[in-house]
Amino acid sequence: xxxxxxxxxxxxxxxxxxxxxxxxxxxxxxxxxxxxxxxxxxxxxxxxxxxxxxxxxxxxxxxxxxxxxxxxxxxxxxxxxxxxxxxxxxxxxxxxxxxxxxxxxxxxxxxxxxxxxxxxxxxxxxxxxxxxxxxxxxxxxxxxxxxxxxxxxxxxxxxxxxxxxxxxxxxxxxxxxxxxxxxxxxxxxxxxxxxxxxxxxxxxxxxxxxxxxxxxxxxxxxxxxxxxxxxxxxxxxxxxxxxxxxxxxxxxxxxxxxx
Length: 259
Known about the structure:
Layout: H1 12-23, H2 26-33, H3 37-51, E1 56-57, E2 64-65, H4 67-96, E3 99-105, H5 109-120, E4 126-132, H6 134-142, E5 148-150, E6 171-174, H7 182-185, H8 189-193, E7 200-202, H9 207-218, E8 227-229, H10 232-240, E9 246-249, H11 250-256
Parallel strand pairs: 3-4, 3-5, 7-8
Antiparallel strand pairs: 1-2, 6-9
């Protein structure tokens, strides 16, 4: 018989009684449970008072069970063994359906997370879904808050990361409809740079901001902007309020249109 704690399936005084039956010693049982011998004795008295029977003959060394104690033990052993089997099966099932801690780009998560959970809920036992900007998601990945992230930043400067390209998406220009007929006004990047409205940029130190700056530099585009934010939803709101124009990814724009 193994003295395996059932983690709350059995009460502690029942587990202590089973341990006493195995070790035949208050001192050894006290050592197993990290209690004093007097605490072990009180736990035994508690269960004896509840059952209104004496379970252990305290006059003998080593301890022996009374007839009532032996009867109770014989009934408990099959129950304990079956409970241990049930716990083992539950743990096996939990291992078969692992938990997942995943990070999503903030605004991208509105549409993606519900669909992701719908597809994966039969395979995953527990979801932890965290959101944030690209730089914040990287921090969470490196601090082991999440197991995987969906981000626009490939993090090539960080070694020992497994990367998988999910999709490529175009960017779109968004412009306040109330002030301009954008499709008629826009003829070139130079026209846009001098349109009279500021360019609302991604925060330059965020993952999106670094990619945006790299794109503008690669194409030798000089766009002045007095507003920066790391919140994509806020950028779209600022544009809709006529504060400027911006470049956003296609999926982000159509996701945020619904909110």
